[in-house]
Amino acid sequence: MPIPSQFRSQAELVNYLETLERRVEALEMENQVYKESLNMPSGAAVPIQAQRWLQKLLPQTNLLSHSFISRAFTVWGHYFVAQLIISAGALVIYLLVMVVILAIGR
């Protein structure tokens, strides 16, 4: 709403000021609603809305756990599976080489 340069009467000025007061009250209520929706629970470092957004965005894995033990065993488990896959590939190559050497040796 543009600010009039001149008011024709005091009633216009009062009407304009009442309109501005209603807008300010509406904005204050909206601001309060936003503040309440972002309230942080006790002990939380991140607001609830941000936590929900991060939970949707980040994968559900123990690599992101708060517990050190959980993270440690998760890393060890990934390492163990990777070693099994690498060892299985190396075993297949080793067996193929041995079969070829035995076939040539006969």
In short:
With 106 residues, the chain is an all-alpha fold.
Summarize the SSE layout with pairings.
Elements: H1 10-37, H2 48-57, H3 68-105
Radius of gyration: 34 Å
Q: Choose one word for the global shape.
A: rod-shaped
Specify the number of helices.
3
In total, how many beta strands?
0
pLDDT < 50 runs, ≥5 residues: none
Mean pLDDT equals 86
Distance between the termini: 99 Å
Helix/sheet category: mainly alpha
Q: Bin the strand percentage.
A: under 5%
Largest sheet: none
What is the string of SSEs from the N terminus onward?
Answer: HHH
Helix content: over 70%
How would you describe this protein?
With 106 residues, this protein is mainly α. It contains three helices and no strands. The chain has helices at 10-37, 48-57, 68-105. The chain is rod-shaped, with a radius of gyration of 34 Å. The N and C termini lie far apart (99 Å). The model has no long low-confidence stretch (mean pLDDT 86).
Structural features:
106 residues; 72% helix
